[in-house]
What does this fold into?
Amino acid sequence: MKLCVFDFDSTLMDGETIDFFAEALGLKEKVAKITERAMEGNMDFFESLTERVALLEGLEFSKVEEICNNLPFMPGAKETIAALKKSGATVICFSGGFRTATTYGKEMLGYDADFSNVLHHKNGKLTGQVGGDMMFDFSKGDMIERMQNILGVTRAETMVVGDGANDRSMFAHADTRIAFCAKEILKKEANIIIENKDLTEILTKVKL
It folds into this structure.
């Protein structure tokens, strides 16, 4: 493997970052329902993202940072990334979530780069608006093609790991496709399925 791309929420991190934000506003159940619909493929990702972020308007940005600095990482995440990098692979995180979470995750877990979205904030509070690299259903597929071209990596040398519907577009560009504790819609696109919350299982199933 020369290129390994991981989703962040519910893959490298145990949970959905936006649900933790919503919990701080007493809106966890409302936001989680929208998240679930999007991850199951029953709602357009862009629409779900903008709808959920709009509900976060007014949340203190300092609270956002505090939450992101205390997210629970998935068991085995750090060890698996270290082993992949030791084998010579470039490890990247693609997330339909947020830079405040994935950049901190990069510092803690050691992956090489992160591509995600940015929560707009003004005067110390979220405005309810969002922009960035991973706004659409097709975004991960579009970005993985760019990474393969830049790095000179083939789909045979590419591994992808995810759990939800918005990971399907990157699954289309890799020969090793791992559905990790995933929704049924993504399992159909995978050739390796892991049901336990332990990312080190990847190391037993993939030839590095």
Observations:
- The domain at 3-205 is CATH 3.40.50.1000 (Rossmann fold).
